[in-house]
Amino acid sequence: MPDYTPLSFVKVQAAMNAMTGKALQTPDDVVAIAIVDNTGNLLAYAQTGALRLFSRRHAIRKAYTAAIMATDTGSNGKKLKEQGRSISEMGDLQLTGMQGGLVIKRDGVILGGIGVGGYDGGHLDEALAQVGLEVLLR
Asked: pTM of the entire structure?
């Protein structure tokens, strides 16, 4: 039977702590981290230093996109590009096709999304989001 339990405050805080702890191991690489619920509403946000507005917004947009589209942002963006389509065709200005957003899913149920922005290259954003995902799904 699928587990529809929403993300708890304790789990969200533990995931944020794990991700910020990992990010602070390389203090010169400043990042923004966001976790949203299954409707895209912000549950937690942190940044490890001063960031431009773009990176802060994109962390939240990546988390939102993962939750709303029910898929990781990098793979979704890649799939759309292969189809000759753009994320803008979806009609939601908050959506992004940039790598760094992971869907939080348990037993096929979408619980939310995690987004990381700021690293130079989306693969590092996604790796940090994976740290939080592992905590949330324990």
From this structure: 0.93
Question: pLDDT tens, 37-72?
Answer: 999 999 999 999 999 888 899 999 999 999 999 999
Does residue 2 form part of some domain? no
Give how many domains the chain has, as a whole number: 1
> Coil, strand or helix: which one is 138?
coil
Contact 129, 74 (CB under 8 A): no
Strand-pair partners of 100: none
| CATH code of the domain containing 105 | 3.30.450.150
Strand order in the sheet with 109-117: 42-47, 32-37, 109-117, 101-106
Host domain of residue 113: 9-136
